[in-house]
Design goal:
Layout lengths: L1 H30 L5 H11 L1 H21 L5 E8 L2 E2 L9 E2 L2 E12 L3 H68 L4 H36 L21 H11 L1 H21 L5 E12 L7 E12 L7 H67 L6 H36 L12
Antiparallel strand pairs: 1-4, 2-3, 4-5, 5-6
């Protein structure tokens, strides 16, 4: 029995350790999952604190709309009281009584000068504003995610390029030392190589520092630590507008800033209507049923039913209602001007984003050609130099510097071209999880 029990305990422990290993593997996998651009976008969309806070704000705007609907529904109030009266000057029967009442009051607003309808429409538009504000924050976070992911990848490339460059200059210094001993070059040539090596090491240190910064920005925006095996950004289809005219057309209906300005202008019109209702009459209808006990010595029980129609019209309130009405008229004028300004700003932003997209695309193609030419030139100059040809140390250093700069420029141009596409999507209003097919 003891052996059997010991075997069972051992089996449980093994099962327990298996579960722990599975959990550790799962956690480590999820922790290192954000190694592609789409995975980074997905992680930021689900985990970013600023975006989650705006989601809560949108849910609050929905509750405001439901609150406005309640203005059209009747109010029901139940009340009652139980009191005691000591009538010292009354008759003997009325010296001490205990009146009681139980009542039900139903009130319904009939007319409020159209303020109820206007307030409901205002809250509906307020909910739409909340949705567009959420979309705006969503676009900002996804754009920042693309930027930090591309920046991290760029800085890793810079580190790798500079590592290769340092290695090449280290080998050149060794080669030049051997050639100096043979008398093929002079001390000046060796000093040039050593100087270039020191410069290459300084560039490597700067690239490594930039990489540390980009890792911190990555974790801040995306909510996960960067991985060492972050993958090259493959060509992705973002369904960009085919022309500038198409981009203008899309932005007119989907740009969140423009839609927010439009909704706020429409809200200001409704505020004028609500303020105007203070100059209009209002009417309410109420029904009350009350049961009363022990009213007096002669009345033991009584039931009262009352229907009341009330109409009010504030003719003069010290001018407050008139001044309030004029104030909201001026606010409407302000919102109209802001809307016109936003239309112009949106058009400018779309044009700039389109221009940047086109120019970065052309620049990327040119730099790719430059890198190919620089690689061929550097290879030929290096072979001639190492074989004892007419090439000088300075020519080798210059060709390697050109190659280094062209490779870094290529990595930067690839980053700029990617970000220009995301900027264009953001300008027209389509940089959303739905458009990018992210899980929601």
């Amino acid at each position: 029995m003891k052996l059997k029990k010991s075997y069972l305990d051992s089996s449980k422990m093994k099962y327990f350790f298996k579960i722990i290993l599975i959990l550790i593997f799962t956690l480590s996998f999820s922790e290192s999952k954000a190694n592609t651009l789409l995975e980074s976008l997905q992680s930021a969309y689900l985990n970013n604190s600023k975006l989650n806070a705006e989601r809560a704000n949108m849910r609050a705007s929905r509750e405001e709309k439901r609150e406005a609907v309640s203005e059209f529904l009747p109010s029901v109030t139940i009340s009652g009281y139980n009191s005691a009266q000591d009538n010292s000057k009354g008759t003997a029967d009325d010296l001490y009584i205990e009146p009681k009442e139980r009542s039900l009051l139903v009130e319904q607003k009939i007319f409020q000068g159209f303020s109820g309808v206007a307030n409901l429409q205002k809250k509906i538009k307020g909910q739409k504003i909340g949705e567009f504000k959420l979309k705006k924050v969503e676009q900002e976070i996804l754009l920042e995610t693309a930027k930090v992911h591309a920046e991290l990848l760029l800085n890793r490339k810079k580190v790798n390029i500079n590592l290769i460059n340092v290695d090449l200059f280290e080998r050149q210094v060794e080669t030049d030392q051997n050639r100096l001993e043979k008398g093929e070059i002079n001390l000046t040539d060796l000093s040039q190589s050593e100087s270039s090596l020191a410069g290459a090491r300084a560039e490597l240190i700067a690239a490594e520092n930039d990489l540390v910064t980009s890792k911190a920005n990555f974790e801040k925006i995306i909510g996960k630590k960067s991985t060492e095996d972050i993958k090259e950004i493959e060509k992705i289809n973002l369904n960009l507008p085919e022309s500038l005219a198409t981009a203008y057309r899309i932005s007119n209906s989907e740009n969140p800033d423009l839609q927010i300005a439009l909704m706020e202008h429409e809200q200001s019109k409704l505020d004028v209507t609500i303020a105007g209702s203070e100059l209009s009459p209002s009417a309410t209808l109420s029904y009350k049923i009350a049961e009363q006990d022990d009213i007096s010595s002669t009345v033991q029980e009584r039931t009262q039913q009352t229907v009341t129609a009330t109409a009010t019209w504030s003719l003069f309130a010290g001018g407050k209602n008139i001044f309030n009405y004029r104030k909201f008229q001026e606010i409407e004028n302000q919102k109209e001007l802001l809307l016109e300004d936003r239309k112009k700003t949106t058009k400018t932003e779309v044009a700039n984003a389109w221009s940047s997209y086109q120019s970065s695309k052309g620049m990327l193609d040119s730099i790719r050609s430059q890198v190919k030419a620089a690689e061929i030139a550097n290879e030929g100059i290096t072979l001639e130099y190492e074989s004892g040809g007419s090439r000088t140390t300075l020519e080798v250093i210059q060709s390697r510097s050109i190659l280094l700069n062209s490779r870094i420029n290529l990595a930067s141009s690839e980053r700029n071209f990617l970000i220009s596409q995301f900027n264009l999507l953001s300008a027209v209003g389509r940089l959303t999880a739905n458009h990018l097919n992210l899980k929601q």
